[in-house]
Amino acid sequence: MATPVQQPPQSSGGKRKGRTQYVQAKRARRCDGGGPRQLEPGLQGILITCNMNERKCVEEAYSLLNEYGDDMYGPEKFTDKEQQPSGSEGEDDDMEAALKKEVGDIKASTEMKLRRFQSVESGANNVVFIRTLGIEPEKLVHHILQDMYKTKKKKTRVILRMLPISGTCKAFLEDMKKYAETFLEPWFKAPNKGTFQIVYKSRNNSHMNREEVIKELAGIVGSLNSENKVDLTNPQYTVVVEIIKAVCCLSVVKDYMLFRKYNLQEVVKSVKDPSQLNPKQPVQAGNGKEAKLESGDKLNQHDPAEGTNNQQVVPENNEELGQAKPRSETQVVNEGGAKPEFESQVTERSESNENDLS
Fold it and tell me: What gap in Å lies between CA 313 and CA 294, rounded to an integer?
């Protein structure tokens, strides 16, 4: 009678697959279309802050960006894999030419797989980065905010702020200086000029110094054209500096204060405070200086990612400000009308940066 053949024991030892293998497989599936998986130097896109619901934030961002992206640039075109270009065989006898054509076909097929908007890992909590391709982020975001500002129609629930990122570089001072010298030229190099301010925010980064960064960037703007002036009240341009881990995101935006610091929740609200409808009236502070009050305390009252540090410069005798709101932004101007020093103005403004959730 034949004995049954026994199966050899499996060498796996019954071990389950490790968590890292699942994570790697998930990332591979998510990035099958090519492109970077996380925020890195050399990208353009849109940085979005949200309130504890990143998945819903990404869904809202795709919906909003596709709506306005189709309006500005036309519908996104998709190409099937079967329709991807392929080099003709037997036409080129030269091996070098055939190799170049093959490399070109690979690059073209990769570009066709990339979507116009693609979410990548930002490296910070409550922050979403949408990588863009073939569009100008600052124009698209400005168009979105301009339409929402005019119509007062709320289109998002969890998205808080939406900042265009026109360029990224390594978050080290020397790299930022070298990159900013050419990045800022289209807005500030002669004959171009304008008033500006600098806003700075850092997340998950401890080696960068806010004052040094602002001082260096302000110096670069001044060196491009001596007629570039600091304006902390209503600047033509706002230089946005967002640092996440070892990546620095830069952009230059317009109407930063008009569009409530690019906050989608606040830009749709109607102005109800009478003090916001009337021109700013100077108030005499106790130290003999004139203080201009901005009613900016309501800009971010429903934005948990903003924080409460909105005060620029506090006069010595706060008691004589009357009924001024305690969180209103305050700017001090000398009696003779002279503006503060070039770099110190920008540094004072940086104190009112938004403390987004991180």
Answer: 12
CATH superfamily of domain region 36-74+113-268: THUMP superfamily (3.30.2300.10)
CA geometry: angle 65, 157, 145, nearest 5 deg: 45
End-to-end CA distance of the chain: 73
Residue among 167, 188, 159 nearest 56 (CA)? 159
Q: Tens digit of pLDDT for each residue in 12-58?
A: 555 565 665 555 544 444 444 456 789 999 999 999 999 889 999 99
Compute the distance between CA of residue 261 and CA of residue 230 in angstroms, rounded to an integer. Answer: 17
Place of tokens 């948990």: 304
Closest CA relative to residue 251, chosen from 92, 136, 121: 136
Q: Strand 283-284 and strand 195-203: pairing?
A: unpaired
- Whether residue 128 contacts residue 58, with contact meaning beta carbons closer than 8 Å, is answered with yes
The confidence score (pLDDT) of residue 142 equals 97
Which residues, in sequence order, are bridge partners of residue 199?
A: 240
Cβ atoms 309, 351 nearer than 8 A: yes
Where do the domains of the chain lie?
A: 36-74+113-268
Question: What does the DSSP 8-state code read for residue 47?
Answer: E
